[in-house]
Amino acid sequence: MADHVAASIVELGLDRFTLVGHSMGGKVALALAARRPAGLRSLVLLAPSPPSAEPIGHQQRKTLLAAWGARPALADIVDAATLRTLSVDVRALLIEDMLSVARQAWRGWLLAGSREDITALMARIDVPVCVMSGDGDTAIPTAVIEAELLPRLANAALLVIAGAGHLLPIEATAEVANTTIL
Length: 182
Hints:
With 182 residues, the protein is an alpha/beta fold. The protein has a single domain (1-182), classed as Rossmann fold (3-Layer(aba) Sandwich). The protein is 43% helix and 14% strand. It has nine helices and four strands. The protein has helices spanning 2-12, 24-33, 58-67, 71-81, 88-99, 103-111, 142-148, 168-171, 173-177, and strands spanning 17-22, 40-46, 129-134, 156-161. Strands 1-2-3-4 form a four-stranded parallel sheet, with helices on one face. The protein is globular. The two termini are 25 Å apart.
């Protein structure tokens, strides 16, 4: 995944940029940042997966694997991941988005990506990092970010968003957009 993002950066001709990653995208951004690509100025990580294995228990992993393509189960996942009330339209869009995920990608996240350990790469990250976490995030709790990510980064700041869950780009759009930590 980091290779695809790196190729997009080259294709777009970006010479100065910030990587922004949410959830598993945060782990991808960390992996790419560790390569020290030319032009990378900073990272913004929204409820990021830790560089170690995600804290997904065996039963929860089985439940998530079985949820692929099942609208009611995916609706439950959206509801569990959010703390703030979503509009009916936004909730429906999130469920539709999850229904569009290829089975191979869904399984790849749960069986490989979420278990990947890239902690050894963290010492290579030398740009400022802004990490945001919802105080009600049960998928990647703030405590996991504090234990598994922050101690491994030399130049990171954490912002905890009150009353938000895991879907920070959706639940806390204004707070995310208006953050000036970096």
